[in-house]
Amino acid sequence: MSGNAATADRDNTMSGTVYLDFKNAKCKDCFRCLRECPVKAIRYENHQAKIIEQKCILCGHCTHVCPQNAKQVHSEADAVLDLLAARETRPVVVSLAPSFVSGLGINDPEKVKAALYALGFALVEETAVGAKAVTDEYAKLLSAGGFKNFITSACPAVNRMIQLYYPAALRYLAPVPSPMVAHARMLKKRFPEAAIVFIGPCIAKKREGHESGIIDAVLTFEDLLGLFRLKNIDPEALPSPAEGERELNRARYYPVPSGIIKSFDELPGGYEYVAVDGVDRCAEVLSEIDSLDGLFLEMNCCEYACTGGPCRIAGKGGAVKGGEAVRKYAATAADGAPVTYPEVDLTEAHPRLMTDDFVPGERDIRAVLEKTGKHSPEDELNCGACGYSTCRDKAIAVLNGYADIEMCLPYMRSRAESMSYEIIQNTPNGIVLMDNEFKILDINARAMRILGVTDHDIKGRTAFDCFDCEDFVAALAMGKNINKKKVFVRATKRYMELSVVLLDEHKVLFGVMKDITDSVEYDEKLNAVKMETLATTDEVIKKQMRVAQEIASLLGETTAETKVALLKLKETLQSRSEDEE
C-alpha cells in the first residue's frame, strides 16, 4: 500500500479529533510550513497543506511561519460556553497558566482573574499549584538517583517528540505528569463534580487535555480574548480587586527559560542543570542523548519557553518583555506563605508511540527518484526546496502518500524550461519575447529566419540592434495588443502576419510571426493570371463583336438581294397568270 491510499487508510483510523489544520483557500504551494516543520508532519494533497495528526507534536511552529496565515487552531470556545451555560448544575473551574501575565496583553493580572469570574467560572486557580507539585516530585526522583540524565516532562510537545522520534531518550524522561495534568488531578480531587478548563498559550495542551480524561476543555489565550469580546467584558475596565496575600510559589517561573530550574527551593546535587528551548535545539540534544551524562535538561519546544507559545498575544517587546513580566509577577510573592496542595497520584507513563509509516525498499526509492530526473546520487541536489532535507527523504514521503512528485522544484523548473524550449523551438511560427525595455528574452530559429537575424547569440541584447521592432514599440506605446495581417520585412524581403501581445503581469512583449511570403507571392501570381485572363477575354470579346458585325453586314446585303429577286419572281408569276386569263 502506498500513496494516497495509504494516507486515506491512516486518516480513517484516527480518532477524528483535529487540533490544527490549514485553510484551503489560503495555501499557496510555498512549502514553507513543511520546510519549517521539525518532524515533517505535513502532507500535500491537491496542492494543499494538511496536518498529519499522528506525526504532529503540535509545536505550533507552522502557525508562525505561514506567510498566508493559513493556520487554523481548533477552538473549544463553544464547548466552554456550553459548560458555563450548565454551571448551575455543574460548576466550571479554571486552571490558568502562569504565562497569562504576559500572554494576554492585559497589564493587571488580577483583572484577568476578575474577568474570568465575570464569564461565570466558579474558581480560577493558577496552574503553578500543579507545577509546584511537579517540581517537588522531580526533586524526589533526582535525590533517589538512577537517572543518567533527567528530562523534564512539563512540555507536552517535547514529550510527544520523544515518544515518536527519539525512543532512546524515553528512559530519561521524568515519569511525572505536566503541571496542567497534575493541577487538574488536584482540582478533580477537591471538586469531583466540577468541569475543568485549562487556559494557556499552547496548542499541544489541547491534545494532552483531551487524552488526560479529566480536563473538559482547553482554551488558548486567543480563545479567551474571543470570549471576552463575545460577552462584552473588558478586563481593563473592571475594578481592580483587592489583592490578598499571594502564596509563595516559585513554580510561577515555569513559563520562562530556566523557570523549572528556578522553581526548586534547593537543587539536588549530582547534575548539571541546563535549559534548552526551541524545537531545533531540543532535537539536537535528543539525537545525542546517549552521549551525554549527568544532565538535568529543562526542555521547552518553544523558544523563550511558554512566553513564546504559539497562541500568545504578542505585545511590544515580544517574548523577552513577556518573560520579564512573568519573572516580576513570580517575585512579588517572595514573602508569602508556602503553597499547599492535596496529595494526588503524580506518576505518568510516557509510552513509545509509533506512526504507520513504512520504510520502502531501495528499488521503490530509486524509481521515485528517477521520475524526477535523479538517476544517480550525483543528481540528488538535496536542496531542501520541497521541505525535505534530502531527495531520498522526499521520495520516501512520496511513497507514504505525504508528498507529490511535482514538489521537486528544480525538477519542475527544468521540465518547464525544457518543455518551453521544445515548444518555442519547434513551433512552425516565429516566436520572440522581450521585456518592456525591448531586451530580448527568447527567440526561436524560425523568427530569426523571418527577421533576417544571423547572429545566434542575441538573447539579452536590445531588439533595436537586431531587427526592426517598430510594431513592438507601437504596441507598448498604445498599451494594447496588435495584429497585422501583412507586414513586409525589408531585411529578408519576406512577408509575415504579426501578432504582438502585452503580458502586463510579467512586463513582457510576446510576438508571434507567421511567414506568409508564399501565400502573398501566390496571390500576386494569381492576380497576374486573373488580369491576363481578363485582358485576353476582353480581346476575344472585341474580336467576336467585330465578327458578329461583319456577319450581320453580310447577312444584311444578302437579305436585300434575296428580297429583290423574290419580288421580281412574284411579279413575273402574277403577269403570267393575267395573260392566261
UniProtKB/TrEMBL annotation:
Domain 4Fe-4S ferredoxin-type as annotated: residue spans: 16-46, 47-76
Molecular function GO labels: 4 iron, 4 sulfur cluster binding; metal ion binding
| Highest rank taxon of the organism | Bacteria
Q: Which residues form the PAS domain?
A: 416-464
Q: Which Pfam families match?
A: Fe_hyd_lg_C, Fer4_10, FeS, PAS_9
- Give the keywords, sorted: 4Fe-4S, Iron, Iron-sulfur, Metal-binding
Task: Cite the InterPro entries for this sequence.
Answer: 4Fe-4S_dom, 4Fe4S_Fe-S-bd, 4Fe4S_Fe_S_CS, Cytosolic_Fe-S_CAF, Fe_hydrogenase, Fe_hydrogenase_lsu_C, PAS, PAS-like_dom_sf
Q: Provide the 4Fe-4S domain boundaries.
A: 364-425
| Keyword 4Fe-4S belongs to the record | yes
Please name the SMART domains in this protein's record: PAS
Q: Show the SUPFAM superfamilies listed in the entry.
A: 4Fe-4S ferredoxins, Fe-only hydrogenase, PYP-like sensor domain (PAS domain)
Q: What is this protein called?
A: PAS domain S-box protein
The upper taxonomy is: Bacteria, Bacillati, Bacillota, Clostridia, Eubacteriales
